[in-house]
Each structure stands twice: as C-alpha cells, then as structure tokens.
C-alpha cells in the first residue's frame, strides 16, 4: 500500500513552519518565533523520533525484517531531509530575517561588527554581568568523563600560542562551559541605541568579546558553540508492572542522562576540539550534525520586542461567548441548552468559571476530570483543590505519561492527593488522552443531574491561548450518562460500557469510524451523495488509510485537513483520486479534530480528542462526541468551510500554497473565524448552509 513515511511527513510539517518564517506578510517578530518553533520542533524530533529509529537499527536482522520500514534506509532519508532543511533554515535567518531586521534599523551584531565604543561597552558588560557566571571545564587527562546536559548550549574554547612563565610554549588546551542563558536572564543583550538604530548582540558573542580576558596567557582564543539533544523516549508503555509513579520519577531522571541523539556543532569548530569532546563524552560520528554558528534558536522567543506593535500579530482579544452568560450561573445556562466554546477565539475562562461555580455550589456533590497536560500555574487544578476543600468528591484521572509534561502532571497529582482528591492514573499500556469534565448536582425533587464539558483541547489555560479547539458544554442526558460511563471505565477497565452516542477508544472508536465510512461507501455505490470531511492533527494509521483508499475507490468524496503528519497519498490514480488534502499553519496551532459524514443527507458531525494514528485508535483512551444540536452542527460546519476555502495559509500535500484564483477574494481561515465569531450576536445561531465537498482535483 502506498503511503508516506511518518517521519518524512513530520519533516514536511516542520517545513511548513519554516515557510511562515520566510513569509514577508507575517510580522517580523512572529517570523522569528516561527524560526524558534522550527528549531524547537526539530530538537524534539531528534530526541524522540530519530532516537527511536536509531534504536530500531540496532535490532537483530530478523526482527528488523518484520518492521513496516527498513530503519537504516529510513534513517538515511530522514537525515538527508534534515540536512536540506537545516540549510534552508540558515538561509532564512541570514538572507531573509537579518536583512528584514536591518530594514527596521534593528541590528543583530556579532563581535566582529562592533564599533570601538560598542566593543568597550560590551567588554564592560561582560566584566560586570557575565564573567562571574562562567565555569569552564578543562578537557585534559585528569577529566575521565564529560557529561553534556540535554538541550543546553555549550561554548568550546581552543587555546594556543604564547609562552609560559619559564619561556616554554603553553600547551594547547580545550575547555568547555555551559552558556549561562538562564542565570543571565536571556540569550540577547541590548546595546545602547545609536539614534534610530537599535542594536542587539547574542550572549555568545559577549563572551567572545571577553574571552581574551578569561585566558590572558594565550594569544589565540577561539570560541565555538555546540548543543546535545538526548533520547527522550521513555518507553513506559512497554512496562506492565510496578509502581507507575516511581517509574515516571525514574524515567524523568533517565531523560537527563539518555543516550545522545544529536550533537549539533559549529562547522568552524577545530577538529582537535571536536575529537576531544568525542573522547570525553563517548559520542560517535553518527550523532554528529553540522549546524550554524548559533544553536537553540528557540531562544528567539525572548528576542526584544522594542515596543513596536507592528512587529507582532494584531491583538485578537478573547471574545465573549454569544450564548453563555458573562456573569451569573453557567450551570443554569448549560441546563437550558448546549453551548460550543472555541478557544482561543473565545475565552477559556468559561471552563475555569464553571469549575469554580461547581466548587461553590452546595448542590454539587461530585466532580470528575481528566488531566493530560496541566499548566504550571493551573487555575483548573486550583479550582479542583477548592472543590475538595468544600467537601465535594473530586476525582482526577491524571496522565503521567504525557511526554515532556510528566513532571508538571506529577507535581499537581501529588498536590491533589494531599488535598483529598481521588487521583487515578492510567495503566502502563494506555494513555488517557480524552478531555472530559463531569459535574454531578443534586437538584430539587430530582435524581442527581450531570453536566459535562467535552473538548478537543486540554484543561490548560496557557495552551488555550495558542491552540484552536472546540469544547461542548452539555446537560444532554444521553451524552452525560455516557460520559459518566466512560469515567466508570477509567476507574475500572473491566467495566467496558455499551454506548450509543460516544465513540471511545480503544474499544469502540476505530470500529465506529469504519461503520460510518462503510455507510458512505454503500451510498456511493448506489449513486447517492457520499462524502467525508475530516480535520485532524495527524493521519498515520495504515488500516485507516487503507479504509479511506477503499472508500475513494467506491466513489466517496473525501476532503482531509491535516496539520501535521499525513501519510496518506491523495490524488493517486486508481487509489485515491477522490481524496484531496490540505493543511493550515498560521498564528494559532490548529488542534481541533472534526469528522463529518454525509449520512444520506443528514450529516453526522463528531468532534474528538483523537487523531487517526494507531496510538490514538488502539492505545489511548479517546472520545469522539456527536454534535446533536443542529445550530451547533451548523456552526462547526461553517468554521470547517472557512478552512476548506482558505487561500492564504493553506498548503496542499506537497507544501504548495493554495493561492486565490484571479478575482477570487482572499480568505485566511483563522482571521475569518475570529471576525465571524466576533459578529455573532447574543443568542444568535448560524443559518448559512454548509457547502458540500466537490470532486477532488
């Protein structure tokens, strides 16, 4: 079956991120941030995916033969593409962004470009603010092993020349020290302005200016940077026994000491220095990757903004919701009807308000929630603590295996436990990725009533300002009873529920989607209208791809909007000619998952936490929930149609921009979404008919 490698597809996604850094229409500092995102993404790719592929290359030949892809061949292809992208990254910085900064009279200077007064200022700054933060380590015979921290930038010094006190030549020396970015308070130093000119210098170059004073006995002092990324794959899913929390603690420690995945170094680094580092660290040639003069471009998130509003995206303040009250009871509003929230366009504060209201309401008896990624200063968990303090029975299902958030989740899990919250953890073989909140309220002369919030995004106020998601507030008895059944299942995996509305992985989502796809195939074979619209972050599962190929061949029109990994090959004659695919990268991270099925003229619309990846369908607790309210269905379909019409930030499968035809208006989906939601009147509901898919071109 024809597919694109998951890893090569992911690199295509990161190339789209780089395109945003290259786009002259994107505000200047936002372009630098996209450069930072690209760099951060690539770091994670090496720490997780490249490290995993390298482990696969070390398997026995018979075992490797059972894999879908040959790991050695894949590794060569991946590294070749990374090299190409690294060159494009460097060219973007040097040939596009530096000149663009200069046009705004912002000059990112290196040590050789300083005027004499500037050099003197930098030298004084080095003496007063930087020198005491430096701790060089000598790489000589007395040092038996050198440990490099994950993701830290190091400066390597090569010293030569001059004679010692007795007239003998000083021996050449190699020293290494960590760049003190955190202790210094950032990677960039602003020099005094010169008229309208604003000057900035890397901390690295400040140290280069002062390096001669660090080693006065040497005539030649060379300084170059390097950075190590370590294997961050925890592999906890393979473990089936023991105390999970203890394993997480142990694995977090291993992450700091994991196997080297990539040593990124300045190509001007002397071979003597590189060899000394290899000898002292045990890093091999296969981990070496040539980079540029500077590393950790994610530090550009902290580049000075100069108080220039035009350097950033125009502000889009979070909007009030048209059908939820700005003050007063949210529970009462949810009791009357369903409401759909669209962070970050609309304020996530409705979720935290609901939790605080539940904590204060004497009629609320129970609160259940799933926590996958929790903000460091979490208003959500603080509301849960308040609810527990006020006597509510609070249950939090905390996912300790959320990669790179394990430590934060562990902190909050322990804090919740100490406050009396019943904290549950997923079993080692599963991740709880669903985003569910259930509030139980005992109301007058009635049995307890459930209120639920089901979402595509995490209970995380920080990411809720950056990620586009959909969240449903509902008191619909059918939905809330099934959410309660899912929580029963989470607390005891032997209690697998029978569900009418929700599609839940790992026991019902895959087969539920297959049935919906097969219904479209039957309709198409009868000559009736049949289509599927699906938006997600990633599409990788081979069986799901095969099912979509089968549907295409049966005549089903399929439109895919995939932000990241996309292994299906659209538009292939005889295979997928009825499938089209696009992806959008813009100021917000597209994070919502929506599945639409024609269903014989009465569309079924599901919103979900799940991508169509094997791990989501088979090894995670995921929930897809139907939109039962016709006005909310129309609302989501309208927003989906805006993405289908995007001709500014949408790209096709090959990363070509889908630009407007002559005379066609420009539609930037995220901007159009904000304007449309801003225009909604209170209690209004959309009436515009959703557009049907057309034949794939």
From TrEMBL:
| Polyphosphate kinase C-terminal domain span | 330-492, 502-657
Tell me the domain of life: Bacteria
- The Polyphosphate kinase N-terminal domain sits at 4-108
Catalytic center at which residues?
433
Keyword Repeat present in the record's keywords: the answer is: no
List ligand-binding residues for Mg(2+): 373, 403
Q: Which InterPro entries match?
A: PP_kinase, PP_kinase_C_1, PP_kinase_middle, PP_kinase_middle_dom_sf, PPK_C_dom2, PPK_N_dom, PPK_N_dom_sf
Which residues are ATP-binding?
41, 467, 563, 591
- Family statement: Belongs to the polyphosphate kinase 1 (PPK1) family.
Q: Report the protein name in the record.
A: Polyphosphate kinase
**Designated gene of the protein:** ppk1
């Amino acid at each position: 079956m024809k597919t694109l490698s998951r890893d090569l597809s992911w690199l295509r996604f990161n190339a789209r991120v780089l395109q945003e850094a290259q786009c002259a229409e994107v505000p200047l500092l936002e372009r630098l941030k996209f450069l930072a995102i690209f760099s951060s993404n690539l770091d994670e790719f090496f720490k997780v995916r490249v490290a995993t592929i390298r482990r696969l290359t070390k398997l026995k030949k018979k075992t490797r033969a059972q894999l879908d892809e040959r790991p050695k061949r894949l590794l060569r292809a991946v590294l070749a593409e990374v090299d190409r992208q690294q060159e494009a990254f460097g060219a973007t910085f040097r040939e596009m962004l530096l000149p663009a900064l200069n046009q705004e009279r912002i000059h990112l200077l290196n040590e050789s470009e300083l005027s004499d007064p500037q050099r003197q200022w930098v030298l004084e700054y080095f003496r007063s603010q930087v020198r005491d933060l430096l701790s060089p380590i000598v790489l000589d015979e007395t040092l038996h092993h050198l440990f490099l921290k994950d993701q830290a930038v190091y400066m390597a010094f090569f010293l030569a020349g001059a004679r010692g006190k007795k007239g003998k030549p000083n021996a050449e020396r190699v020293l290494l020290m960590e760049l003190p970015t955190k202790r210094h308070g950032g990677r960039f130093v602003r020099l005094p302005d010169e008229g309208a000119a604003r000057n900035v210098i890397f901390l690295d170059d400040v140290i280069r200016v002062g390096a001669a004073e660090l080693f006065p006995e040497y005539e030649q002092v060379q300084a170059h940077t390097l950075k190590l990324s370590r294997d961050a794959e925890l592999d906890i899913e393979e473990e089936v026994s023991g105390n999970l929390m203890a394993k997480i603690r142990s694995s977090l420690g291993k992450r700091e000491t994991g196997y080297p995945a990539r040593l990124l170094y300045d190509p001007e680094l002397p071979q003597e220095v590189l060899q000394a580092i290899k000898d002292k660290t045990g890093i091999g040639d296969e981990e070496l990757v040539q980079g540029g003069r500077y590393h950790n471009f994610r530090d550009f998130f902290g580049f000075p903004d100069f108080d220039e509003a035009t350097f950033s995206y125009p502000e889009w303040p979070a909007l009030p919701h048209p059908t939820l009250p700005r003050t007063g009871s949210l529970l009462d509003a949810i009791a009357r009807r369903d409401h759909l929230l669209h962070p970050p366009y609309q304020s996530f504060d409705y979720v935290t308000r609901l939790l605080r209201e539940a904590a204060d309401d004497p009629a609320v008896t129970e609160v259940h929630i799933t926590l996958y990624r929790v903000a460091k200063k979490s208003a959500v968990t603080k509301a849960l603590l308040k609810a527990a303090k006020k006597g509510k029975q609070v249950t939090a299902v905390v996912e300790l295996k959320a990669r790179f958030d394990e430590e934060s989740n562990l902190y909050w899990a322990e804090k919740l436990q100490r406050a009396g919250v019943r904290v549950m953890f997923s079993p080692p073989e599963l991740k709880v990725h669903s985003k569910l909140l259930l509030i139980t309220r005992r109301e007058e002369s009635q049995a307890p009533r459930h209120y639920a919030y089901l979402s595509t995004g995490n209970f995380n106020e920080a990411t809720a300002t950056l990620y586009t998601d959909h969240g449903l507030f509902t008191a619909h008895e059918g939905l809330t009873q099934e959410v309660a059944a899912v929580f029963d299942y989470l607390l005891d995996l032997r209690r697998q529920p029978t569900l009418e509305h929700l599609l839940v992985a790992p026991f019902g989502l895959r087969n539920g989607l297959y049935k919906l796809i097969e219904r479209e195939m039957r309709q198409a074979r009868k000559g009736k209208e049949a289509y599927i619209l699906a938006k997600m972050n990633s599409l990788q599962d081979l069986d799901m791809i095969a099912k979509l190929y089968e549907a295409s061949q049966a005549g089903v029109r399929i439109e895919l909007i995939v932000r990241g990994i996309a292994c299906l090959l659209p538009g292939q004659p005889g295979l997928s000619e009825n499938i089209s695919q696009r992806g959008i990268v813009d100021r917000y991270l597209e994070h919502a998952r929506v599945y639409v099925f024609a269903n014989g003229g009465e569309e079924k619309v599901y919103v979900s936490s799940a991508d169509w990846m094997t791990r989501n369908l088979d090894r995670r607790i995921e929930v897809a929930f139907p939109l039962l309210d016709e006005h909310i269905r129309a609302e989501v379909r309208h927003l989906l149609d805006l993405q289908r019409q995007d001709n500014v930030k949408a790209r096709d499968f090959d990363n070509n921009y889908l630009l407007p035809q002559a005379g066609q208006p420009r539609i930037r989906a995220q901007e159009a979404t904000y304007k449309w939601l801003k225009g909604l009147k209170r209690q209004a509901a959309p009436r515009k008919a959703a557009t049907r898919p057309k034949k794939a071109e």
